[in-house]
């Protein structure tokens, strides 16, 4: 058998991880023939709950589950890891201002970035899920100067999958038949689910849907506010769908997308007018272990205004944490 890969997952006692950890241990991320060691991080008061989740993982007797580390120390959790999914974050509590939320999370991701920098494998692949995901990834990358910034990414895949499924329902086709959807910008209601280049079975998706009013007035707000709609309906935020998107993101990055576009939050190289280093949702094509941003797509006035809006929000978030980064 192959040597085991080590994956760190933070927020291990939380609701996303209650789905995510089982999917990873089951081989959905690295493949059914790849042994996996889970290195689980959560706060001191959550250690008992993490142990309980691990008892359940053990009780699944997954063939490729090869071991587990349970800790509240990022340097133990990130030791020699091949991949990390950073889910744990400080949620907004009652009366908490947006600025307080930003700085509480900036502190967490600064500490975790430094720990990754010290002890993770040099080619570790990192996905930040915990919100504000893009800015948390930005802070992680800035705090891990010895790791390649392109390996520290943020999750836009849930927005991407949400858009795919809404488009498919409207057009009366299967989501798997839709290609070239791009979700730009911040993982927040300002993100822009762009269907201008999308095709379904070789036909242009906008033509197939043929309802620009629906696209602008229904699709965009539906995808933007989907997280809030799920909280309203379920009384809890999206968890299994978020875990699924995290699996999709990492799986595709590791195994490739065979030419298909996916949406990933990645450190900008300056393209599309996004300042270098800002973690921005873009369309990307993955080949095993690597991704390439789809470059040179034309912008019309509407799209440019949507990009400007989501970028403005990200620049404000960056400015909000600048003092903490020093
Ligand atoms: P939960 O509150 O159920 O779990 C969070 C867990 O993280 C808890 O066990 C907590 O103890 C732990 N934690 C807190 N601070 C930590 C730290 N410094 N180190 C390690 N662990 C820490 O939240 P859950 O529903 O699992 O959501 C987790 C995060 O994902 C939230 O920030 C949420 O906003 C974010 N989401 C991001 C999405 C995305 O598309 N990027 C979608 C889903 C989700 O809303």
What is the secondary structure topology, with strand pairs?
Elements: E1 5-10, H1 15-25, E2 36-41, H2 47-58, E3 65-71, H3 74-77, E4 83-86, H4 98-119, E5 125-128, H5 133-142, E6 152-154, H6 157-171, E7 178-179, E8 182-184, E9 192-194, E10 199-200, E11 203-204, H7 205-209, H8 212-224, H9 226-234, H10 240-255, E12 262-267, E13 279-287, E14 290-293, H11 301-325
Bound molecules: ligand NAX.
Structural features, described:
It contains 11 helices and 14 strands. The chain is α/β, with parallel strands linked by helices and 326 residues long. It has a 6-stranded parallel sheet with strand order 3-2-1-4-5-6. A 3-stranded antiparallel sheet has the order 7-10-11. Strands 12-13-14 form a 3-stranded antiparallel sheet. The longest helix is centred in the last third of the chain and has 25 residues, at 301-325. The chain starts with a strand and ends with a helix. Bound molecules: ligand NAX.
Strand content: 15-25%
Briefly note the structural class of the backbone.
alpha/beta
Cα-based radius of gyration, to the nearest Å: 19 Å
How many strands appear in the DSSP assignment?
14
Outline the biggest β-sheet: 6 strands, parallel
Give the ordered list of helices and strands.
EHEHEHEHEHEHEEEEEHHHHEEEH
